[in-house]
Amino acid sequence: MTDGPKDDQGTPLGLRAGGGAGDEGTPIAPDLPELPVSNIKELFTDNLFKDAKNTVLTLVFGSALLYALYRGLTFVFLNTKVIDGVERSGWEVVSDRLQIYMLGPNFLGTGVTLSSVWIGIAVLLAAAGIAFGLLSDPDAPPMRPRTRVAMIGAPGLGIVLILSMTDTITPKLLTVAVAAVAFVAFRLATRVPDAQRGRVGLLALVLLLVAFGFMTGWDPSNVNDFGGLLLTITVSLVCIAACFPIGIVMALARRSSFPLIRPIAVAYIEFIRGVPLITLLFIGQFALGFLFPPNTDTPGPIPRAMIMITLFSAAYVAEIVRGGLQSVPNGQTEAGQAVGLSPLTITRRIVLPQALRNSIPPLIGQFISLLKDTSLVVIIGLQDLLGVIAPILGGEQFRFQGFSPEAYAFVGFVYWIICFTMSRASQRLETRLGVGTR
Amino acid sequence: MSTTEDLRSAAIVPGGTGEAIITLSDVDKFFGDFQALKDINLVVGQQEVVVIIGPSGSGKSTMIRCINHLEEHTNGRIVVDGVELSGDIRNIQEIRRECGMVFQSFNLFPHMTVLENITLGPRQVRKKPKAEAEAHGMELLTRVKIPEQANKFPGQLSGGQQQRVAIARALAMEPKVMLFDEPTSALDPEMIKEVLDAMQDLAESGMTMVVVTHEMGFARAVADRVVFMADGEIVEVGTPEHFFEDPKEDRTKLFLSQIL
User: Fold this and answer.
1) Contact with chain B for residue A437, Cβ under 8 A
2) Cβ of residue A164 closer than 8 Å to a chain B Cβ
3) Mean pLDDT, contiguous 10-residue spans, chain A (438 residues)
4) Is residue A9 within 8 angstroms of chain B, CB to CB?
5) Residue boundaries of the structural domains of chain A
6) B40 forms bridges with which residues in the sheet?
7) Cβ contact B155–A437 (<8 Å)
8) Domain A228-438, CATH 1.10.3720.10 — does that match?
9) Pairing of strands B99-102, B177-181
10) Which of B68, B109, B111 sits opposite A338 (nearest CB)?
11) ipTM of the complex as predicted
């Protein structure tokens, strides 16, 4: 899923971005795989219809491709179904229930107002915009158009999606407004001078907490009513933020020369890596409570899931960071020692920064998998972005029975938008920190 | 044998001002079963330049890495500036502060600018304020003739420039001794001279230096004493004149005939 650290220009973005470039044709001519196609005519004469064999292959695969494209486009744009004699758009299952996909079935009505949620979204997107802006390199040459499209393509598609799925004007306007907030935050953050970046980054973190405050209506216990995309994002952010430091500590512990620390870290990492996440989630729901003293309030199901996902990911982060640590030559440590630095300073100032920089690509990969793995909380009864589908399809006397293709396609697309954006962010971060160059 | 006695006295009588700053007595070093250093006795005097030569695998690098405890010696005593090296981390750090070290592969910190490389030690270990550390860093960069590179990253510099930064980084701690572990071996030929020049300037300023090198021209021009090592032992010690004109030991003669 994750791209390697190499240049992204080779990725067939057009194909992934939404099927619009499906007429490119399948690569024929296996004997000339790298033939540069300089113009359309050459493509046809030298590649697609070079001889009888190629022509047959082109016709077979071309028609299959066109048919798939036709079915795909009608599914997206001409999707109507007749149910009980009434013609309905297949996307009703999204547009009529958008709020449930976003916030979950139980969220509103717990005292959190919709306006508070919108403010929360605006603040959250401002934080995201700042984070993206800080990752941009002010000295970088202007982005190539293709890169630019890839950068804004996924979030842009997300906005278009929401706009097309809302019926009234207010959510449309609000969507555009929060997107504008994110964009302005992004532009402002790109202009922050290097020396201030740390402080502005801290501001983004504070904004994240503020957003959480608005989302919960300033009552953290409302977290237990989170659902839909809100739950997915909350669980992901909390788990990413928590598993990262734990993973670093575990990686360092695994290399430690102290007698007891290393075996503990090894046992932790190997235990977690040997157990499926679903098992851990069940342990969290049914066994974690026994670790708390009797007669105390145990955390609710959502925090328990967060704890287990965090512990799970921390083990993988630890192994990734350990790999990064091993990639730092021993001479770096020796140079630090020769200057008289303490072991702690050597780790903190010399080894760890280099190790983490080398670990960015696999780390982001791990975080993307974490985000996707959060969908496993469905199995313990949480209603995250994936989990809301069942109550939607089954709710209101099965009003949306038979709409599952649309519901799953929508949810899958939302996951893709988020993961693709994260993958782009990681590439920005790599360029920014000069992975592999400095 | 009188030659052994000669060798012993040549090795343990400090040159320079005549006052000892580094003393190695009966030092042994084992890597598993392999003995890398055998019964090393050497005294380096203040302001003296000692050049250590010898075939590869002879224990030269191991010896100077023992002096600042990058390697732990197995037996014997090492005393630097009156402090004996023991397992105690405070002793080790005290000695490391007094011994600047320059490595074959530079070992600059690639994620820091040149100036940050130089000021990290003074700021963290000597607790110097930032401005003072940077001013001193710039002074040292000027001394090694690359002040204009201060804000670049090591990867943007040539090998010779990087090694001069490494020298400046070691000097920034204001050490009493500088240890050089084959400082020119990883350099392209045209860059060797600029590094040797910087080292020669340093020697002329009165710095105590222990240099492992294959640069015989440098040894001849700058060394007060030359130490020849083979198979983990000190085989012969003498002034450059004695050494290059009139070597006594067969192994020394063989080595010199191979490289000169």
Assistant:
1) yes
2) no
3) 40 36 44 57 78 90 95 90 82 87 82 88 93 77 71 82 84 91 91 86 92 88 88 94 95 90 94 95 88 80 93 96 95 94 93 92 92 94 92 82 90 93 82 61
4) no
5) 113-216, 228-438
6) B27
7) yes
8) yes
9) parallel
10) B68
11) 0.90
